[in-house]
User: Fold these one by one.
Assistant:
Number 1:
Amino acid sequence: MSAYTNNVSRNPNIAKLQAGYLFPEVARRRAVHLDKYPDAQVISLGIGDTTEPIPDVITSAMAKRAHDLSTLEGYSGYGAEQGEKKVRAAIAAAFYGSLGIEEGDIFVSDGAKCDIARLQMLFGSDVTMAVQDPSYPAYVDSSVIMGQTGQYQKDSEKYGKIEYMRCNPQNGFFPDLSAVGKTEIIFFCSPNNPTGASATREQLTKLVQFAKENGSIIVYDSAYAMYISDDSPRSIYEIPGAKEVAIETASFSKYAGFTGVRLGWTVVPKELLFSDGFPVAKDFNRIVSTCFNGASNISQAGGLACLSPEGLQAMKQVIGFYKENTNIIVDTFKSLGFNVYGGTNAPYVWVHFLGRSSWDVFSEILEKTHVVTTPGSGFGPGGEGPLHCSSLRIKKIQIETDALSLQIMLETMGNVHHELAAVIYDVASVIKKFDAAELTLIAR
């Protein structure tokens, strides 16, 4: 008996999407692996989820707000769609200081990824877009769903009507803008997910000038700005003229462990105008008011606590822990002789494996070490070959390793992060076989 079908046709844009979204596909393969090895203690260096507990100064504020909702005096229902004014003001003060961004320019949300989709609704289906290659998959996939792209080309592994801006070690992970065609929208992430590279002030100045020359709008993803430890800009608005051409989106997810709490923000400056002179922010406010009832009042209480002096210090400590994890990943792969990028200004490491398929390397490491990474090819055709490793998923790890080698690592790396060192050693023991050269692990 055939299944019943209705008269509603499938959205042809969704039908253009290739395979599954990257991270659910990685999760699916992890689940298959666990079915095969039910007793395996699978360790994740893959998706950028967090493991460190949210600092008490932040959770205490959320708990108080939650309790207040049980009282007549403290109860509140629907809030402002754009976010509570005091939260927006705190974001403006903490992250934008003297850059000219005001609380009225800020839209508080349930996360940067959600705002990317809302921004696509704002732009509509008749725009063209450019994206870093490799890049966070949500940029391309949301463009496909909105109908902004052509068909997927299997030979090039690209969608038609998208400008893929190749970013690799040869160009310092910044695209050759002279080779990029004119588009209305430019997605740009710095520090970058997945490569971990951060753009310099000179590079971002070129990007802003490029957008002005072409009449484009930059969607700038700064979700990892607090990880920056050098003089790289933490906001696109540090660049003169950027308020006229750029939207910035950010999140508390990787600063305060809000991946489950959900809280972020997007900046749409009043200086940003459409071709007819109409303010972009007014249309975005209409999108938000129609499709979103505002971020959770409990989450916003947590966000306000994040931006207190104590909260900012607590977030820096969490970030410091993840940066120590990242250093171990970088040092270990480098000691094996692999080319390693990122890790300085982001919790991500980009490791090159010449001549190997990213998915093949992913599968072999998972099979032999029970460790999950992310194949670089999942971030675009420019990601084929490397693996993406995240330092955010390391919490408590128990894994068998060579005792002597582990002892050396413990003595040289210290006990705080010894479990991560054990995992990296075990992964490295497998992947060094991928290289023809005989390399020796040197604990430094």
Note: The chain has two domains: 18-53+311-434, 56-308.
Number 2:
Amino acid sequence: MKSKNRSECPINFSLELLGDKWTMLVIRDMIFEGKFTYKEFLSSKERIATNILSERLKSLEACGIIQKLTLKTKAKVGYWLTDKGIELIPIILELGAWGARHSGYGWEEKILKKMKSDKRGLIRNLTHDIQRRGPVKHEPIAPEMILS
């Protein structure tokens, strides 16, 4: 992670931290797929290289978006979104909705409908679901939990 930003612009700061093509995908997988181990991130369909994944996880940890945890499982280490990382949920949702509108790729229709009808409720439910899962109990989000 760079120690000095190019400018004091908050948009520049955000882009320097999150603007590469892998960082937001790691965060996406943590939010929507319940992934939190190195091996789970490697299994994503985008096929991130091991060296890039290691670099992104270190960078996210260094800036306080994720926390590295020691596990009593075979994986030994896991990563968990901090409160700072959870604050990215609305941004991820908006990026997904924008991408669905302009790319021709579909996105979970239930999520798009919920964003239109009750975006705050969706954000609240996703946040609650991540906190409910905790750093040890992980699984993909339960659609009925976030969409109720």
Note: Helices lie at 10-18, 23-32, 38-42, 50-62, 83-86, 89-103, 109-133, 143-146.
Number 3:
Amino acid sequence: MAANVSITAGTLVRRTKRARILVLGFPLAHRSPIQVAEDAAMLDVISGGRLIAGFVRGVGTEIHPANTNPSDTRERMQEAHDLIIKAWKTQDVFNWEGKHYHYRYVNPWPRPYQQPHPPIWITGSQPAAVPWVADHHYTLATVLTSYEQTEALFGAYRKRCEEMNYPEPGSDRFAYCALTFTGETDQKAEEGGRKLLWYLNKRRPVG
């Protein structure tokens, strides 16, 4: 969790040589898609093609200050995704006239090191979001969901693949993000963990 994940990822790029850098993630519902496309591509270039681009909708504490309507964040995220992918894959200048985003001149710099683009992960906490992820053959990542929620989400992904006659998804299509807290003693670790849990409960993601 960071105010600007690109800065955090940049420090990891500098300190590592072979490790993949997963950014989970770039908030798409309330950020400029072109800025996200350029930031992610820059990280991919500097790292020599080690970026995994994770896209998220964002949390309420980010969405409301951005004056974004919470009811259309999924639409905005999906359109932003489409624009980013086109920006990464298109070598010529183009314009974009969508429902939520309008750009007369799209010509991002740089393009990603990995072609046609870095691997993409999408977070999801609601079954309604899963079919879109499966249709794009992306990795579905759940963050701090319960066992029952995670089982339902992964099951929805497999069901969608079966319904659409997609290849059976492998284990690399599913990811679970859990947080741990360590301390000098068990007592300190438990105290710190409770504070972290309180903080997370105040910042529940918007699916």
Note: The longest helix spans residues 73-89.
